[in-house]
Amino acid sequence: MTTTCKCIAHLPKSLVAEIDPPNSIRDAHLHHQRHPLDNDVVKGVLFKRGKINPAFQRRYFELTLESLTYYCGDDMRGVIPLSTISTVQSHADPSVAWGIELVTPARTWVLSAANGGDYRKWTASICQRVSVDAVAMESHRELHDGKYRGVCAVQVELSPTYSVADAVKYICACYMQTHTTVTLHPFDPTDYVLEATAMTKSTSGRWKDPARKVASYDEFQTCCAAKETLEVTLVLREEKTTTNATKDYME
After folding, report:
1. How far, in Å, CA of 124 to CA of 101, rounded?
2. Is 151:116 a contact under the CB 8 Å cutoff?
3. Which residues contact residue 103 at a Cβ distance below 8 angstroms, ignoring those fewer than 6 apart?
4. Is 135 within 8 Å of 125 (Cβ atoms)?
5. Which domains does the chain have, with CATH numbers?
6. pTM here?
7. What's the pLDDT tens digit per position in 22-45?
8. How far is residue 148's CA from residue 213's CA, in Å, rounded to a whole number?
9. Distance of CA 130 to the CA centre of its chain
10. H or E element: which one contains 110?
11. What percent of the chain shows pLDDT beyond 90?
12. DSSP 188
């Protein structure tokens, strides 16, 4: 097997020592409530989940004081009036690392940022422009979970030539390069193995042998064959159950 496997990799929440503010949608909103409104148009790329096709599509967005408009190339594809947004919240799907939900009467818009910096930029700018009630409606727990779900996750591509130990080291290296605003507690990557889940088949397994090739595991093979994203979580080698291993980043 020569195909790399796209993965969403999670680090345990207990490893996160500090996150530079703003840490959540509510924090971003409160921060901007204390500062003058920025009248400039916010521009950039986000990934939008389709209404019929659930796949995320890359779109160019422009945010003004009144609306969020998105384009495909030079063609305008849609406009979300900010006055129609009743709720701004983190996306609940753990496989979407930087997901944002905008709830309107017509539909729930699901957007995804490419990284933590873009996530903070867009959530801060949107929260600055919508009604305070749209942000206040989201529960503290949802914000807390959304913050850590995004901060503890990184998107990687695992080579079939990697051993489990190689994969853990690679994930940690990618995480440190991506999350420059996050400080981690000191830890040894060799203390960790991987818990893997093939989402489409609802199968999971512990990759507990550090020397074994990741390509030899069923979950890796399943996701490569289906061209789906694999979800993996760093777990301590001493931990015995999936529940104890995964609840750290889910709580």
Report:
1. 13
2. yes
3. 85, 86, 87, 88, 89, 109
4. no
5. 5-18+149-236 (3.10.20.90), 42-143 (2.30.29.30)
6. 0.49
7. 445 555 555 554 444 555 789 999
8. 29
9. 23
10. strand 108-112
11. 29
12. -
